[in-house]
Design a protein that fits this description.
Length: about 130
């Protein structure tokens, strides 16, 4: 997925799960479908490293807990097609700053994992025809 990526200009936006219309959250497939319903597209997986470099000024997370069976606080998940259907394999990337150190990390979840309404995602904005 990282070999010879297609060159594209994308406008990325950040939205919470709640802003996508899921006031109590939802599974990853429900969240991604809600994003599509609002006109957003999933990011190419290679967007993660580029977005990390573009957002070096992301604020510090309110805590330093890296994993607790939930999404890390202060994280922005790069919404992309899952890398593999294998539950043990990372599904994608998230961006986070912990103690002034910027992170690009992989995340794993199964199909039943519930994304909270406060979870933040990077998505490709709808294109506006000129």
């Amino acid at each position: 997925m990282f070999d010879n990526p297609e060159s594209r200009d994308l406008q990325l936006v950040e939205r919470t799960v709640q802003q996508l219309g899921l006031s109590v959250g939802g599974t990853q497939s429900q969240v991604f479908e809600a994003a599509r319903t609002h006109g957003f597209q999933l990011c190419p997986v290679i967007s993660g490293p580029f977005l990390r470099l573009a957002m070096m000024d992301q604020p510090n997370a309110p805590d330093s807990v890296l994993s607790a069976g939930r999404a890390p606080t202060g994280a922005i998940h790069v919404a992309s097609k899952p890398l593999s259907s294998d539950e043990a394999y990372p599904k994608g990337f998230y961006l986070r700053v912990v103690d002034d150190e910027v992170w690009l990390r992989g995340y794993r979840c199964d199909n039943a994992y519930q994304w909270g309404p406060e979870q933040r995602l990077a998505l490709v904005a709808p294109t506006v025809e000129r």
